[in-house]
Specification:
Layout (H helix, E strand, L loop, with lengths): L2 E5 L3 H13 L3 E5 L2 H10 L5 E5 L7 H11 L4 E6 L15 E4 L5 H12 L2
Parallel strand pairs: 1-2, 1-3, 3-4, 4-5
Helix pairs in contact: 2-3
Length: about 120
């Protein structure tokens, strides 16, 4: 079973994603910020994919992804955002995929499954 870490400052988003992804058969951990994400990655080295919001207070998802790439170069990273205008910039970021947040989590589930296939 794949282990997914959700990083989002909005609790309702974290809980919705956790519930939906667990129903899809994934083990899901959640944290509210970049600092907690790095601590979780350190204590749980078997995390397969990090799904991080881009816009967060303190350290944003782009800076978090850069730090993850330095410490854990093989971790897969999915950027999550409510803003579709970021998609054109995604190629220059340290992530593997980009998903616009919505209440329908089909795209995030499909993206996770696709990334797991190419590991």
């Amino acid at each position: 079973m794949a282990k997914i870490l959700i990083v989002d400052d909005e609790e309702n988003i974290r809980m919705l994603m956790k519930e939906e992804l667990e129903e899809a058969g994934f083990e899901v951990l959640t944290v509210a910020n970049a600092k907690s994400a790095l601590e979780k990655l350190s204590s749980e080295p078997d995390i397969d994919i990090v799904c991080t919001d881009i816009e967060m207070p303190d350290v944003n998802g782009l800076a978090l992804a850069s730090e993850i790439r330095k410490k854990y170069p093989n971790k897969k990273i999915i950027f999550l955002t409510a803003y579709s205008h970021y998609k054109s910039e995604m190629a220059s970021w340290a992530g593997d995929a980009y998903v616009v947040k919505s209440m329908d989590l089909t795209e995030i589930k499909d993206t996770i499954e696709n990334l797991l296939k190419i590991q």
